[in-house]
Design goal:
Elements (H helix, E strand, L loop, with lengths): L2 H31 L7 E3 L20 H7 L4 E6 L4 H9 L4 H9 L7 E3 L3 H10 L3 H4 L10 H9 L18 H7 L4 E4 L12 E4 L3 H8 L5 H5 L3 E2 L4 H18 L8 H9 L9 H27 L3 E6 L1 H13 L11 H8 L2 H4 L2 H10 L1
Parallel strand pairs: 2-7, 4-5, 4-7
Antiparallel strand pairs: 1-3, 5-6
Helix pairs in contact: 1-7, 11-13, 13-14, 14-17
Length: 366
C-alpha cells in the first residue's frame, strides 16, 4: 500500500468518528440548554364553600379528646375527580344530593389548596403520599422529553409518547405504608396505580390508563390488562365486572343524555367509536363504564378484603366537565373567545347533552 493511499484510507476511516463527535457535541449542547424543571407552586383560589353556611349539626362542638375517640377504625376515601363546589352547592340547596349534604352536615368539609400544574396524576399522587410533586416524582400525564431526546427520537423514526406510571413514583403511598404494617387495603381506580402495586389486599389500577394508552399509541389495552390487578389471580373476576358495566350502559343511557335516535343507535351498536371523530359519544360511554366499573369492584370486594382503608376513585365528573360543560353553561366560555361558527356548531349539540354534567355529578354524589 502506498503512503498516499494509506493517508486517504485513514481520512475515510476518521469520518464516522468526526460525525459521532459532532453529533455528541450537538446533544451535549441540547442538554446544557434545556431549562431546569419548574417547581410546583401551591395555589389557593376563593371558593363558594368559603361562604356557604349549611344547616347547623344536631350535636354541639366536640372536644379534641372526643374527636379522637370518635374516629373510625376503618376509612373509606372516595375521590371525585373534577367535582366543583360551584356546581355541587346549588344542587345541595335544591335537595338533589341528600347523602352528600348529610356527610357535610355531620362531618367536616372545606376547600383545599392545589398545585400548578393542576393535573390529576400530580394532585392525586400528592394526596396519596403527602408529598409535593418535586418529591413524589409524578409531573403530569405524559413524560416530558429533553431536546436531545426529541432529536434522537426523530432519527429513530418518530416520537414515542410515554405516560407516567406507578413505577415513576419516588415515595411510598398510604397503601404501601399500611401494607408494610400488615394492614389490609383496597385501592380501586386511583390515578397512577398502573402497574398495580403488591399490596396486602387488592389494587385495581385506573382503567383511565387503558383509554390514554390507546389514544396516545402506547400499546394495546390487553397488554396493559395483565398488570392492572394485584393479586393477578383475581383479574378474570374483575375484568368480568368491566364487561358487566359495558353491558349495563344501554339501560343507563337515558340518565345522562337526550340523544337523537341516530346517535343513540350508534352508541348502542358501535363498539368502536372513534375518540376523535365521535368524541362526545365516545366519552359519554367511556365515563359511564369507567365509574360504574370502579363502583362495582369496590362494592364486591369491600366485604371480602375488609380493608382498614379503602381508596375508590371516580373520574366521571371530570370527563363530563371537559366534554359537556359548554352544553351545561355556555357562559363559562365567555372569556375563551370562541369563534362564532364554533359556538353555533356546539349549540346544535346542547339539546342532547345539556344535563350530562349534572347527571354525572348526581350519580357520584347523591
Amino acid at each position: 500500500m502506498t503512503r498516499r493511499l494509506r493517508r486517504v484510507l485513514l481520512r475515510i476511516a476518521a469520518v464516522p468518528a468526526v460525525l459521532t463527535t459532532a453529533f455528541g457535541l450537538v446533544l451535549l449542547s441540547d442538554l446544557l440548554r434545556e431549562p431546569a424543571p419548574v417547581p410546583s407552586t401551591p395555589v389557593r383560589r376563593p371558593s363558594p364553600i368559603d361562604r356557604w353556611k349549611p344547616a347547623a349539626a344536631a350535636q354541639g362542638p366536640l372536644t379534641a379528646a372526643a374527636v379522637v375517640a370518635s374516629l373510625p377504625k376503618h376509612w373509606l376515601v372516595v375521590g371525585w375527580d373534577g367535582a366543583d363546589w360551584d356546581e355541587i352547592l346549588p344542587m345541595i340547596e335544591r335537595g338533589e344530593l341528600p347523602h352528600l349534604a348529610r356527610m357535610m352536615r355531620e362531618g367536616t368539609h372545606g376547600a383545599v389548596a392545589t398545585f400548578r400544574p393542576t393535573l390529576s396524576p400530580v394532585l392525586w399522587t400528592t394526596v396519596a403520599t403527602g408529598e409535593p410533586p418535586e418529591r413524589h416524582g409524578i409531573e403530569g400525564f405524559e413524560k416530558s422529553t429533553t431536546r436531545a431526546q426529541r432529536r434522537l427520537q426523530r432519527l429513530s423514526g418518530g416520537r414515542r409518547r410515554v405516560l407516567y406510571s406507578n413505577a415513576d413514583r419516588k415515595v411510598p403511598a398510604l397503601w404501601d405504608l399500611l401494607s408494610s404494617e400488615g394492614r389490609p387495603v383496597l385501592a380501586v381506580g386511583y390515578h397512577n396505580t398502573y402497574p398495580a402495586s403488591r399490596v396486602n389486599g387488592l389494587m385495581v389500577s385506573s382503567f383511565l390508563m387503558q383509554g390514554l394508552q390507546m389514544l396516545m399509541g402506547g400499546g394495546s389495552a390487553q397488554a396493559a390488562a395483565d398488570r392492572r390487578v394485584f393479586p393477578p389471580e383475581l383479574a378474570p373476576e374483575i375484568l368480568a365486572l368491566q364487561t358487566d358495566a359495558e353491558h349495563s350502559f344501554p339501560r343507563a343511557l337515558g340518565r345522562f343524555a337526550d340523544l337523537t335516535p341516530a346517535d343513540r343507535r350508534r352508541v348502542l351498536t358501535d363498539p368502536n367509536l372513534d375518540p376523535v371523530r365521535d368524541q362526545l359519544l365516545y366519552f359519554l360511554r367511556f365515563a359511564y363504564v369507567h365509574d360504574t366499573f370502579n363502583g362495582e369492584v369496590a362494592e364486591r370486594f369491600l366485604p371480602r378484603v375488609a380493608p382498614d382503608v379503602a381508596f375508590v376513585h371516580f373520574q366521571g365528573i371530570d370527563f363530563a366537565s371537559h366534554y359537556y360543560l359548554y352544553f351545561h353553561d355556555s357562559s363559562k366560555y365567555a372569556s375563551v373567545g370562541l369563534d362564532v361558527g364554533c359556538g353555533k356548531t356546539l349549540d346544535t349539540f346542547a339539546p342532547e347533552y345539556h344535563r350530562t354534567l349534572t347527571a354525572f355529578t348526581r350519580a357520584r354524589t347523591a
